[in-house]
Amino acid sequence: MLSVAGLTADIGRIPVLKGVSISVAPGETVALLGRNGVGKTSTLRAVLGLLRRTGGSVSYQGQDLGGLAPHRLAALGLGYVPQGRGIFPLLTVEDNLCLGLKGKPPADLFAELYERFPRLAERRRQAAGTLSGGEQQILAIARCLIMRPSLIMLDEPTEGIMPKLVSQIRTEIAAIAKRGIAVLIVEQNLRTALRLADRVYLMERGQVVHEATPAALRETPDTVHRYLGVAL
Amino acid sequence: MSGGAAAWIGRGGLALLGAALLAVPFVLPELGYGFWVNIVTEILIWSLLAASVNLLFGYVGLLSFGQALFFGFGMYGATLAVIHWEAGFWTGLLAGTLAATAMAAVAGALAVRLTWHYFAIITVVFSLIFYFAAMSNKTLTGGDDGLSFSAPAVFDMAGVTVTLADPLAQYFSVLGVVAACYAIMGVVVRSPLGLAFAAVRENDRRARLIGIDVYRTRLVAFVLAGALAGVSGALFAFFGRYASASYMVYHVSGEAVVWAIVGGIGTLLGPLFGTALLIVFRELVSTVWENYLFAVGGLTVLVVMFAPLGLAGLWRGALGRLTAPRAAPAEAPADPVAPSADARAVPGGR
């Protein structure tokens, strides 16, 4: 589905990605893990074309994404929930949801969405910036889902969210995966990543240094400690 | 009272405004203020130029100081159509609007690649290039002296001809066109396209990531704004039976920016209120104080500092305080300074 091979990218003159190769199969949940500044977010941004790629290739459902403008990716079924939610705080909740749609939204679409996210229904006429951090994250995920993507890329979805809401967001991500939507998640929270992912990539200094299943990773705590600096 | 009450008060205000505008040519002459009918007509016409600034700045976040260029194209499109093709009011209006729209499409294709001060500068540059071209090409434009023409027909059918020389025909033709422009703008800003405008204004990078073609969205807004300015220019040409290159200079654009800001950017009818206030101010004060523009400058600074949503924002704020339930705090946008999503509404309702 998503295939990234030998991806390199620079910020200014500093190389931030040095040949990243990852893949995500249909319906699979894949996590990118690593310490701060190892290139996890840069990988997502380079896939989306927000960071200038200097080498390697990115293809999605067999189509080369090289040279494709970022706004065309949504139409291909590639959803993205950026770090810090990426909602439009001055627009209402409902306007935020409608933004992903062409034309007037069908009523049943909202009914289904509001049934799933009742907090959004309660606050649909409210400015999105007045929602709590967790609610904004839910809104960002809902807005992404309304566009019916086949792959969702989530960048640090639980960052800065109160612990009570982290489990709700985790549940939502698991529900997305159950619906057959592939998920590529960048996550600092190791527990969350291992619980959700089918496969995990560990990154260091702009490269993928290790690939494993969560079960295999749990059996090699030294690797986790070496690349993430935490104990399992 | 609730939000529903606010909407009803807003609708009432809008109906009152409509009724007042319809009554103007009948009531003011009766009261001995016949001269003010022309001032109201002028306000209506200029407000469309301010609305074109507002469409770009208030809804898409692009501050243009070059709308006079499209005003000039509208003006000359209409004038040349009347002079060379003996066009009537409606054909001339169409010619002026099309000329301005075509120019906006060309200028916009380059200008909307830029944002912020770069965008503002390029719009001024475009305006200056065509201002000097129009001033020097006297054969076509008449330069500073301009071109004049006789009042064309508004209605010419079954042996009945009504021209713009008829004050009522002129007033109601202008009012009808201006009202139609505001109605179209109202539909646009509430449509998915209007939502895309708001998303681009708020954060173009995020907008791009949810599939909005930011360049195309900005270009559409630029062309629409150019068309509005063109309608304004064409109406002004008909109002004065005259077109001059001097109206294409950048300070005409600057005045429109001031009217839009004072009236309330990001609000549909704000530019109408801002234009009305400042033109009435000009008419009352300029006869006794030559440097009245100092006061206009001071007023603009005060509005930017203390009422960033202008007159329309003050009206909406008052309405909000009047209708908000006392027990529950009002749901306000996160940033009280920036234009809110709600700012897309007509002051006091739709």
TrEMBL record, chain A:
Keywords from the UniProt entry: Amino-acid transport, ATP-binding, Nucleotide-binding, Transport
Domain ABC transporter: from-to ranges: 2-230
GO molecular function, one term: ATP binding
Gene3D superfamilies per record: P-loop containing nucleotide triphosphate hydrolases
Assigned protein family: Belongs to the ABC transporter superfamily.
Name of this protein: ABC transporter ATP-binding protein
Organism: Rhodoplanes tepidamans (Rhodoplanes cryptolactis)
Lineage start: Bacteria, Pseudomonadati, Pseudomonadota, Alphaproteobacteria, Hyphomicrobiales
Automatic annotation (TrEMBL), chain B:
Record key words, sorted: Cell membrane, Membrane, Transmembrane, Transmembrane helix
Membrane topology: Multi-pass membrane protein
Transmembrane portions of the chain: 6-28, 35-57, 63-83, 90-110, 116-134, 171-198, 219-244, 256-280, 292-315
One Pfam entry name: BPD_transp_2
UniProt-annotated location(s): Cell membrane
Annotated region described as Disordered, given as residue ranges: 330-350
Name assigned to this protein: Branched-chain amino acid ABC transporter permease
